[in-house]
Write a structure and sequence with these properties.
This protein is mainly alpha-helical. It has one domain (about 1-435). It contains 18 helices and 4 strands. It has helices spanning about 15-45, 65-75, 90-95, 100-125, 130-145, 145-155, 160-175, 180-190, 200-205, 210-235, 240-260, 270-275, 275-280, 290-315, 315-330, 345-350, 360-370, 390-405, and strands at about 1-5, 10-15, 380, 385. The strands form 2 sheets. Strands 1-2 form a two-stranded antiparallel ribbon. It has a two-stranded antiparallel ribbon with strand order 3-4. A hairpin with a 6-residue loop joins strand 1 and strand 2 (about 10-15). Helix 2 crosses helix 3. The chain is globular, with a radius of gyration of 22 Å.
Amino acid sequence: MRATDGLTDASVDAAVKLRRVRLLVAIVLIGTVASIGFHYMGGYWFGWEYPRSTFLVVPSEHLKDWSNPYLWAQAIMRGEPAPSIYFPFAFLATAVATALPMGLGLALLVILFLVVLVLMLRGWVVDLQEHALVRFQYGFILVALSYPVIFVLDRANQDMLIFAMLAGFLYFLYVRKPAWLAALFLAAAIAYKLYPATFLLLLLAERRLKLCVLTILLAVALTAAGTGFLMLEGGYGLGTVWQLNLKEKAFYQQIMVSEGQGLQHGNSLWGLTRVPSLLMGTGWSSPSDFQTSLYTAGAALIFVLLALHVVFREKERWKQVLLVTVAAVLLPFVSADYALIHLYFPLLFFVNSPRVSRWNMTYAALFAVLFIPVDYYYLSLEMMGVSISVIVYPLALVALVVLAVLDLAPRRGESAVGLSAGQSSICDAGVECSPHLKPPPAVVGHRTDAR
């Protein structure tokens, strides 16, 4: 029995997909329930205080990633000065939300995020389960017990909107025309927060150069629209808008990077480089300019190497999506755990990947680790607590990248080693075929019935 995956250029063996999904669900279920029980017993029975009593942020910060920008946007609408750590388009979008009560705006954001996520899982992850109850159970576990989902909801972070935008980008890139909608969704995500710009590599990999240029132009246009809004509503000059933005970003860099506040609940490679001092018990020390410059250069080099691999060498789509996603999540100086929600995109492509390598179940296990809370031990109680999660998550991301880069699919004329039974064609191996041989692929929450 084989199932058309809608995410790749061929079809996925149903038994292979079921094994991947079952392992993923089992690890998420056991891992998250164990962590909830561990922290509950610690707080209730042993009297542990924050941060050891929870895997979430301090209770006073719940929902602040929504309420703070909302209040800032309201202040700007009244002509009052306000912090500007987000790009101008993000302020424009938040200002639109101020037309609604704060709670209603947040509710709509959460509903949008959950609907997109549920459609993705329902259509492309749990779809092969025979019984509706099992599909519901698996879907419930992958949403309600997913650490990144719990964390982003607890913070009420606007990455939920970025998630929906990137889902739209992938949908209109691989499923439906018009293609300019893919450019619009990605441009909006880039104009909102810069890190989704790594997804431009997918356009280059598809040789969609005009679409890539259109995306960049639209991102500039949306940024200009946000800047114009700040100038009109806030009474700022053009130079003042960007001066204030750069000033607030420098302040953010000081707090989150130099003072280490971004280390807690973070999954950045930068955070991993700061762990040795905590392990040696010397405590936190502000990084020098040389250290930050060295990391910047190293991260840039890693990104360039990944970009070259995605655009010119990698042929399996799930790995292309994985590499651009990990670049966005792993390489910035600060990357909070809510950013892990974007790992659902390569996960969907992976579980539907027709090629079966010897690392098949290892990939599934690594994805699962990124969806469970692992802060069982704290390296330091400074900076509101730094747990082993700052080691586990970056290492899991690095492991996924290394395996994906080294585990190349067979090329034409080579032996298709490691393929499951029935996978004999080069299309089934997950390698690009000529366009006239490929069925139209799909991405999120939708099947192409014409297959």
